[in-house]
Structure formats: C-alpha cells, structure tokens
Amino acid sequence: MASNSAKQSGDASIESSEAQIAVHWGEETKVAPPATFIAQANLADPTARDRFSLERFPECFKEYADLLSWDQYWHTTLDTSKAPFWKWFVGGRLNVSYNCVDRHLAKYRNKAALIWVPEPEDEPAQVITYQELYQRVNEMAALLRDFAHLKTGDRVTIHMPMVPELPVTMLACARLGVIHSVVFGGFSGEACGIRIADSGSRVLITMDGYYRNGKLIDHKKNADIAVATAEKEGQKVDTVLIWRRHPGRKVTDAALIPGRDHFVDEVLRPFRGQRVAPVSMPAEAPLFLMYTSGTTGRPKGCQHSTGGYLAYVTGTSKYYQDIHPEDVYWCFADIGWITGHSYIVYGPLALAATSVMYEGVPTFPDVGRPWRIAERLHVNIFHTSPTTIRMLRKAGPEEPLKYDLHFKHMTTVGEPIEPEVWRWYHQVVGRGKAVIVDTWWQTENGGFLCSTIPALDPMKPGSAGPPVLGIHPVIYDETGAQVPAGSGKAGNICIRNPWPGIFQTIWGDPDRFVSTYYRKYNRNPQSTDWRDWPYFAGDGAMQAADGYFRILGRIDDVINVAGHRLGTKELESACLTVPEVAEAAVVPVQDEVKGRLPEVYISLKPGVAASPEVAEHVARAIETQIGKIARPKSVRIVPDMPKTRSGKIMRRVLAAISNSMDVGDVTTLANPDVVEQIRTMVQGAKPAPAQPVPDDIRRFGQVE
Ligand code: WT7
User: Fold this and answer.
1) Considering only CA atoms, which residue is closest to atom 19 of ligand 1?
2) Is residue 441 in contact with ligand 1, taking CB distance under 6 Å?
3) How many CB atoms lie within 10 A of CB 513?
4) Would you call 75 exposed, middle or buried from its count of C-beta atoms within 10 A (0-12, 13-18, 19+)?
5) How many CB atoms lie within 10 A of CB 349?
6) pLDDT per residue as tens digits for the range 553-565
C-alpha cells in the first residue's frame, strides 16, 4: 500500500516504510554484555568470526559437527550436486538419541536432563536424570518397534502437550530412525489430521489430557477427529498410542477404539527394562518433519536432517544459548514448534544440559508463576518470545522484583521485540545483569540465523544483530539488485550460503521447496554452485551501518500471531466451510500483546442475512479447524469484497482499513464504492487518523 510520500520515490513501498518505521522505532543505543558473563562464556574469542568466514565455507562447520559423536566420520562436508537439495556431512553416520542421551551417561548419569513443572502448582516437579531418560527412551523405542511395528524411515505423528513423555517419544523415534512429526498440542484434531495424511503416518501418539489455565483438557477426543480427518484424506491410522496424564484415573470421556487405541502405560509393561541399540543413521536421513504455514492453504512439512540439523542446533546452543552442563536452562516455548525441538530438546540435550519444561500457561494461577518457577529451580538461562514478555510485563510490571532471580542470559525469539519491552526484560527481569540475545530464524532453518554473540557483541534493543557464525546474509530488492550492505534500506533478506541446519525439502513437494525458497533469486537453475542459490527467507529486513540486521516482518501473506505463523489461506478456507459464507478475506491487525491478530472479512451468500451468529460460526470454524491461537480479533460481515476488475479480492485494501492506513488509490477497482462502505463500518463516519504502521502490514496483500 503506497502512501503519498512513497509514490514520489522510486522503489516506493520499501523506502517509505523504512522511514516510517524509523519514526516510531529509532536507532537504539547499544548495551555491553556484563563482565561476569564474559568471564564464563563458551565463546569469548573474537577470532571466531574469521574461523567461520565465507572463505572458510563450508569446512568451517566441521567445528559444529565435531561436537557430536559419530559412528562413522563423513568424507564430504557439503555435496551440492543436486542443488538446492544440499547434503551435509555425507558418508557420516550417527544416532541422535545416542548423542542426546547415551553418550552422557558416563559423566552425567545422575544429573537432571529434564525438569518438568506441571501446571497445577501443588503437583511436584518431575526430575528426570540422564539415566532415567535413557531407560524411558529405550522402553518406548522397544514399544514403537515391537508393538507398533515401526521401522526406520516410517513417519509418526505426535500430538502432545508439554509433558516429559513428549521428548521421550521423540528420542525413541530418533533411536529407531523413525521420522517424527510433532503437531503443536493446541492445534485442533482437524489440523492434526491433515498433517497425519500429508506425512503418511499410520501411527498417532497422543495424550488423554493435560492442564491448561487450571482446567484438565480432554485431548483424546482430538485424536478421534484427527484419525477421521486423516481417513477422509486417504490415510488410515491403525494405531493410536495414548499417554495418560494421571495413569489409572479417568481423564477423557472419549472411548477407546478396540484394536486401535492403547494406553501407553499399559502396553509399555512388557517392555520395562528393555534396551534397544541405537540405529546408526546416515547424516542425511530425515530426523523429523515440522509443519509450517505458507502462502497457499496446504501446510508445508519441513524435512530436517539427522547430522546437519543436530550439528547446527548443538553448535548454536553452545555458542549463542551459551549452555554449560551445570546451567539450569529454561526455554519457555512449546516443543510443538521448531523452537522447542531445537532449543528445548535436541540442542540442549546434545550438550548434556538440564532443560526445564513447563506444562501450562504463563499466568496460571497468577502472573508471578514463571518467576516462581525460575526462583525455585534457580534457572540461570531463560528463553521466551516477545509475546510472552509483553503479556508478563502488562499484567505484572513489578512482579519479577518480588523474586530472587538469577538470570545470566535471556533469549527472545519469534517476532521483533519493541525496544521498550526489551528494556523491561533487561532491567526488571534480568536486573541489568543478564545478556539478551534476540534470535531471528524460521521453522525451515533449524537454528538461529541472526543474533549477537552473547559475550562479544553489544546488544541493540529491537535488532536481532549480526548474522550468526557461518551465515552470510544479503538484502535484495524486488529486481534482484543488492541493497547496499549497511545502508539502512529495507529489502528482502536472503542467505547467500547453505548451512547444516537448513531443511532438506518440503515433504512430498520438492517443486514447492525450490519455487518458494530458491527460485526468486536463483541465477541459473542448472547450476550446482551454491553461490547461485541464495535462500529467500520471506522476511523484510534492513541492515544498519553497524552491520546489525533488523527484521521487519513477513513479506508474504503470512500472519505472525504471538510468534506463530498462520497462513491467511488456511484461515480463509476454514471460513468458507460455514455454509452461509460466500467469500472470505483475512488480514493482520496490530495487537498490543500478540503482535498481530487475524481479522476476518466475509460476504454472505445471496438471501442470507448478516447476524452475530454467522460471525460466531466463522470464528468457531477457525478454532476447530486450526486451533484457538488462530481465533480472529473480529469477524466483519461486508456487503461485498473490494475486487479488481479481474475479480481478485484486494486484501491490501482491507488491511489498510483494519489498520487505519490510507487505502490509496482504489478508483481502478471493479467496485470502488464498497471501500468507503467498509471503511465506515470499521472506523465510523469519520476516517480514523492515519497511523504509522509496520512494514509487514504495509506490504500485506501486495506480493502475489
Ligand atoms: C518468522 C518465522 C523460529 C522461531 C519461531 C518462529 C519471524 C522470528 C524473529 C526475530 C523478528 C522474527 C520472522 C520469521 N521472526 N524470529 N528475532 N525478530 N522477527 O518460527 O513460525 O517459522 O516464523 O518469524 O518473520 O520469518 P516461524
């Protein structure tokens, strides 16, 4: 959506938006890391960047691979012969569960691997040592192999909440070379079913229930919906394994389907004490799938590798999370997202860390809960999202001061963090004594792409910082010309080189993999030289003169709600399942806590009257088909959608109205009058004064 000032300059939307952002989010003063942190850091050697320079690529990543135990060392660091399907550490063999569990036993058998904090505050925490984790992973692996008949290369869908049985199940899969696909527990049964079908899983692993905001939620019923949905999509699920939140107690009303459904605690009995040798996997074998949203309705199964992925998350956990085995590390994210895979489970456990998991919501029973957990367990590394920080700050700005907190290091991930919120995190939560790393990356990336090195780089509130070791970004404009480095001008951020954590493909859709991430700036489709294949991240970004990157948000029609990606097309197709709805368009609106929320516009079929009931049905349809996190801020019933003469819905016009932006020139639309009607509906008779708006909203609906 080009504003007036923008129209006068050349590459309009980009330049003006940068100027606008600068108005309400200026360059910030840098803050130095504290000396106490530097003294103990894993990485305090300023020559590290030379070791990972582009001249040393790809061999530099040997440093990360050498953090792992290999059954067989690799012969080729990077094979580019099937570009852009990169192969890392070719010829190498290893097992992920061995690397995360078995190899720590000699030294750390009796040390906590996981500390699980249930949501009910009177239920004691569970401390799982490496020895105990080893036992549980082996028993579960035996059950998966000998009871569920899973073999290396099979896919399994896991739809579980934040309980220790989740990492146990993942590691058991990894032990066998079974590819897991963990679906966020808060996703609906339908959403899970679509992912079961796409991945071709015949086994679903779930849980009967879990606590959320003080309530014991019945989760088993989602499994029944998931299996039915998968079946409709042509995928039969023959086995459903159900962990129990309170074995022996009735938690779910849903009946067990004989022959299909099994309580894990019951079928696990014969496997007690069993051992399963870890299967030695090729470095290039897939470890897991993680589904994420894109511009089309179908979620993408990002396929991550065994050796490259584990090397990358281990290296970045060591240098950027700065985890030592003696730390108490709490990544307050959900394992159902990539953050949890990389930085609760695989990276920390590969380093023999103690990783804390919490079952519930941050504000249960009150806003002091996270700080009580941190105080009680003496957490010294804390990792969470700007959304959670905003929520905790809003509900209890003084609350952290009531507790004895000892953070030396804190991370944020998932969205840009407002400098004001950053300062609260730094001063009130971190007491000015902790370093903060703002880590930019994506589901597809495996691990961090931009972040300060905690002991070496000063922090700049609101900026992710320099690229991490071995990552070489570049910003291109729409024409493919490079935006000068350090110019402060916005454009599309790309990574020039492959790295070990990058996903291997989209499960079952290699063409979409190439076209979404590589086609835009590819110089020659036949080339096997990685230099011709920059990775297109789909984010707008700018690089300041000091080399720090600031991420401006998605440039496609993806809405980042509370740090989670929602595809507008997925939301729209959910709306269209309501029989009264003729057309639907979903746009992002700004929200004080969640960053962005979806706002829904619908038009109704002829003869159907607008009513609050229809609007509520639409909101409910989104909740049941995707999940509660996708619930729209509002559902607006409009007489017609603004459309081009060719009949395309102009989402950018709706986004402009929802965000009190200038709608720009709409005279060429097929139905320009409807724009003013909708504007009045949303803003009232008098147009709302134009607000400065962030880049992702300004660009929304413009890229096709
Ligand atoms: C999108 C990826 C990977 C962890 C969680 C999200 C946005 C991520 C930052 C950050 C500004 C960020 C980007 C990115 N994003 N981290 N530190 N600063 N924006 O994973 O669901 O794959 O979403 O989140 O827009 O493309 P995801």
Assistant:
1) 415
2) yes
3) 22
4) exposed
5) 26
6) 888 888 988 888 8
